[in-house]
Amino acid sequence: MLVCALQTTIATLTFGQGISQLPALPDPEQMGRFHIGFIRYTPSLVLSNLGVDTNVFNELEDPKEDFTVSIGPKAEFWSRLGPRARLYGSTGIEYQYFQEYDSQRSFGTSNVVRLEKGRSLPSTRTLQRIAKATGPELVITFTRAA
Questions:
Q1: Cα dihedral value 2, 5, 11, 13, nearest 10
Q2: Would you list the domain boundaries of the chain?
Q3: In Å, how far are 6, 83, 114, 128, 133 from 16, measured between CA atoms?
Q4: CA distances, 132 to each of 28, 124, 127 (Å)
Q5: Which residues on adjacent β-strands are paired with residue 131?
Q6: Which tens digits make up the pLDDT trace of 105-145?
Q7: Which residue among 42, 96, 139, 144 is buried most deeply as judged by most CB within 10 Å?
Q8: What is the pTM of this model?
Q9: What is the pLDDT of residue 60?
C-alpha cells in the first residue's frame, strides 16, 4: 500500500513538472513546408505496418501468415480563417501490399478536416492551449476490411 502511494506521488510530481516545462510549440502555419496563397501544406510519404500479419484472414483455425507493408503519399494543410480560427486538414492514399495473398492488396484513403478556434490562436504555444483551441473534427477513412 505504501509503495503504491509512493509511486502515485512520484508520478504526480513528475507529470506536474513535465507540464510546466513543456517547450514552446511553433504556430502550425509556420510548419507548412510550402504555400499556395493562404494555404500552407506539407507533403510526405508514409511507410507503415511493415512486418508480418500472423492472421491475414482473421480465421480461428489454421490462420494464414504473410508479409505486409503499407505505403502512400500524405499531405497536411493549414489555413487561417481570421484572427481566431484556422482550418486544418490531412489527406492521404495508402497502398496495402501483401507478398503472398495478392487478393488482400488494396488501396485506402484517410481524410481529416478540423476547424480550430480559440481566443488567440497566434499565441498557441502549449499543449493546454492547443487542447482548448481544438474544435469539431471530421474523419473519413477507407481501408481493407480485416
A1: -100
A2: 22-142
A3: 15, 31, 29, 13, 21
A4: 15, 10, 9
A5: none
A6: 999 998 988 887 775 544 433 333 444 444 566 666 666 65
A7: 96
A8: 0.63
A9: 94
Q: Which residues pair with 4 in a beta bridge?
A: none
Placement of cell 503499407 in the chain = 70
**Chain-centroid distance, C-alpha 62:** 34
Residue 32 and residue 17: Cα distance in Å, rounded? 31
Q: Which three cell numbers stand for residue 59?
A: 480465421
Distance in angstroms between the alpha carbons of the first and the last residue of the chain: 43
Q: Where are the alpha helices (DSSP H) in 21-83?
A: 28-31
Residues constituting the chain: 146
Rounded distance, CA 122 to CA 28, Å?
9
Q: From CA 114, how far away is CA 139, in angstroms rounded?
A: 9
Residues in Cβ contact with 136 at an 8 Å cutoff, skipping those fewer than 6 apart: 114, 115
15-41 pLDDT, tens digit per residue, is 444 444 445 555 666 778 898 988 999
C-beta of residue 93 within 8 angstroms of C-beta of residue 72: yes
The C-alpha cell of 88 is what? Answer: 486544418
Q: Tell me the one-letter amino acid at 107.
A: F
Cα separations in angstroms, 138 against 3, 78, 89, 108, 141 = 44, 15, 9, 17, 10
